[in-house]
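Hi everyone, sorry if this is the wrong subforum. Our group has a chain we'd like a structural model of before ordering constructs, and none of us has done structure prediction before. Sequence below.
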Amino acid sequence: MYGGAASLYLLLWWRQRRLVDALLMGLLAGGAVWTKKEGMTIAALLVLVYAGGELLRRDVRMAAWLWSSARLVLAGLVVPLPWLLFKATTDPIGSDYWPLTPAVFITHVGRLPTIVLLVGREMLDLTHWSLFWVALAGLPLVTVCWLSSCGRGLLALLLGQVGVLCTLPYVFSAWRPYTEHIHRSADRLLVQATPLALLLFVEALDTLSRRPVFAGEDLAPQARQRPS
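Answer:
Right subforum, don't worry. Here is the predicted structure as tokens:
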């Protein structure tokens, strides 16, 4: 819920350039951090995509970008800061993961092919996810050449979210066997991307509707000219 709503306000920020939308994105990203551990990944991806979009703009001044980015990050920290401070001083919840260190990652990186295979099978389980998921995944990829810059930003955010959330948790999983962790939680991790995927789906449909061939416009303007 938080990640999807934050993505919506990110899209509004790109389109309307209202600072309030960027701040709301930060607050909602902070809510994601408070709610679940995966929210930290979602919030980090949101900030990275936001920063990438700002850096690609040629009309933005560095001072203005730094100031707006600082306010965004502060807004994102306001909501989860009490929880993060509390968790730093206590250990209220047990962990299913090994420490997030480079050494652990290198030790377990060999799990990645199996993780990708099992998560891929989960995503292709049509009896579980239905054909609507095929449309959600297929339409943006088919229309990627025509997507607006906003749509491409959402696509990058979705690919990053699905890619990170469905691989790294299992690389660091302390379950034995870790494959059981995948079977138990992959569907719940994937469903977190539903609001963002639906937003991208609508953006792709809007892009198609603006294409001349889909808008009912003749591709040969000279054919509409009156005979002399």
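For your construct planning: The mean pLDDT is 82. Residues 106 and 136 are 34 Å apart (CA to CA).
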